[in-house]
Specification:
This protein is mainly alpha-helical. The chain has one domain. The protein has 1 helix and no strands. The chain is rod-shaped, with a radius of gyration of 58 Å.
Length: about 140
Amino acid sequence: ATAEAEAARIAAVAAAKAKADEDARAEAARIAETETLAAEARRVAEAERLAVEQKIAFEAEAARVAAAEAKAEEEAEATRLAEEARQVAEQQRIANEMEAKRVVEAAARAEEEQRLTAETEKEKAMKRAEEEGIAAE
C-alpha cells in the first residue's frame, strides 16, 4: 500500500509539476502578448507624434506661403499704383506742355494783331496827315 501511496504521490507531484509548467508557459505567452501589444502601442504613438509634427510643419509652411502670396499681392498693387501715378504725371506733363504751347500761340497772335492794328493806325495817321497837308496848301 505504501508503494501505491508513493506512486500516487509521485503521480500527483508530476501532475502538479505539469500543471505548473503549463501555467508558466501560459503566463510567458501572456507576457509575450502584452510586450507585443506594448511595442505596437509605442509604434502607433510614435507614428501619431510624427503625423502631428508633419501637420504642424505643413501648417507653418502654408502660413509662410500665404504670407509670401500676400506680400506679392501688396507689391503688385504698389507697382500698379506707381504705374498709374506715372501715367497720370505723364498725362499732366503733356497737358501742361499743350497749355503752355496754346498760351505762347495766343500771345503770338495777340502780338501780331497788335502789330497789324498799330500799322493800320500808323497808315491812317499818315493818310490823315497827308490829307491835312493837302488841305493846308
